[in-house]
Design brief:
single chain, 3-stranded antiparallel beta sheet, 447 residues, mainly alpha
């Protein structure tokens, strides 16, 4: 029942869902997300979790090319700060063009949804009036927008000169064919002139039409789904050659071919996919590749078991009123047969031929292996202390964060009471498999 207030409060507060464009993920109490990303780097060293769209490689390359043109035309300084500022102009123009081509109808998860779609939608309006060029596309622009997401991968594949923001010679054909693989070059130049107008820093807006070039047409030719058009086959093939056939590691191409074969068999789930790879369901793997797959499986299964034990501990203390007896919780969380399975998972990682990879990590790798050793043969109370000790060490590395569960004498006390992860089942890390699947789909390799 609602009751009127005699006097309204001086401040109003409300909760809102996290902006999904921020790449926010719930904090992992055991740094397993971070460690899973490192394992993913060993499988696919040229990609990150954010490099899942093939057309984005082209958008970033072309934008950096435009930056060079703008610097020459307007005499701007050739430093990275200026280059970044100019590139952001291009990215905002491209985002607005994408929206224009979709008549403003673009939602998160859509095939054309770019990074910063919410910021672009707040700015774009229908009609014929010019659109502003200086707006916030995404709050953490340097990290989460196109350049921040794709630059390391572009450098890895030598499409951008290392330590610079300049496209390499290897990217020249991709840049030349950005607007079209065929047709009059003069038409492509008109698109370039229109885009370059947005990189004039004296301008604050861009018209929706210049000659026969319109903002809508610009969006149709460059939006994320454009590479899937039947006329872009040559570009798709070139990117396949560069990103996969030309990969300098033993795993990227081999695993991509496995993903393709598994897709034809209807297998997409990371756990099922890795299990099938390890068994040779889609062809025998070289020893080195197989070891990487088995390492991912060993870590993934251990990560699920560790997080499950932590979540059960958190839940027990939470349901006890935020304070619980440590020995009672240990007996509950580390009871058999779950603990027997956990020890099997620990042994699988400790005995793996590539386990030293974790020792080489800057963060959390060595402590993880130490934790596995402690859990292998300890009693429940010692196991609980080891798990919470690892959690405490992880939190301390996060800018001085404290443990969520404090252990003092015989009691456990919740220090952080808003964690909700314990309410859902732990999942095997994806190890960039979804990222690679997305790239393969854009390149026409899978449906």
């Amino acid at each position: 029942m609602l009751h009127p207030l005699n006097q309204p409060p001086s401040s109003l507060f409300w909760s809102a869902p996290v902006d999904r464009d921020t790449d926010f993920t719930a904090e992992d109490p055991l740094a397993l997300d971070y460690l899973g990303q490192q394992v993913g780097n060993w499988l696919f060293p040229g990609f990150t979790t954010r490099t899942g769209r093939a057309q984005y490689y082209l958008v970033v390359l072309y934008g950096l090319h435009l930056v060079e043109r703008a610097i020459q035309r307007h005499g701007y300084p050739g430093d990275d700060q200026t280059r970044t500022r100019l590139f952001e102009r291009w990215e905002r123009l491209w985002a607005l063009a994408t929206l224009e081509s979709r008549h403003g109808e673009l939602t998160r998860g859509d095939v054309d949804a770019m990074r910063g779609v919410r910021g672009a939608k707040r700015t774009w309006t229908s009609g014929t009036k010019p659109l502003p060029l200086d707006f916030i596309l995404i709050s953490r622009q340097n990290e989460l927008a196109g350049l921040g997401a794709y630059l390391s991968s572009l450098r890895h594949y030598r499409l951008v000169v290392d330590h610079t923001l300049r496209p390499s010679r290897a990217a020249r054909e991709l840049i030349d064919d950005f607007w079209s693989e065929s047709g009059p070059r003069g038409r492509s130049q008109s698109y370039t002139r229109y885009a370059l107008a947005a990189l004039n820093l004296e301008r604050t807006s861009i018209s929706r039409k210049s000659g026969h070039v319109t903002l809508e047409l610009l969006g149709k030719k460059s939006r994320l789904s454009a590479i899937r058009h039947r006329r872009r086959q040559a570009t798709r093939e070139q990117l396949w050659q560069l990103l996969f056939e030309g990969a300098r590691d033993p795993t990227t191409l081999a695993l991509a071919l496995q993903i393709e074969a598994a897709d034809r068999a209807g297998v997409q789930d990371p756990a099922t996919l890795l299990e099938g790879m390890a068994r040779g369901d889609w062809g025998e793997l070289d020893l080195s590749v197989h070891e990487h797959v088995s390492l991912a499986l060993a870590f993934g299964k251990l990560a699920v078991a560790l997080l499950d034990h932590f979540d059960r501990c958190y839940q027990a203390v939470h349901e006890a009123g935020w304070i619980a007896d440590a020995e009672a919780v240990a007996g509950l969380v580390f009871s058999r047969p779950e603990t027997d399975l956990l020890r099997i998972r620990c042994a699988a990682l400790l005995e793996h031929p590539l386990r030293s990879r974790f020792r080489e990590l800057r963060f959390h790798g060595r402590p993880l292996l130490k934790l596995c050793g402690q859990l292998a043969s300890s009693d429940p109370v010692t196991c609980l202390a080891a798990l919470l000790g690892f959690h405490r060490q992880v939190q301390r590395s996060r800018r001085g964060g404290g443990a969520w569960i404090r252990q003092a004498d015989t009691k456990l006390t919740l220090q952080v009471t808003h964690y909700r992860g314990y309410r859902s089942y732990a999942q095997l890390p994806s190890f960039k498999l979804w990222t690679v699947r997305s790239l393969l789909r854009d390149l026409g390799r899978i449906a």
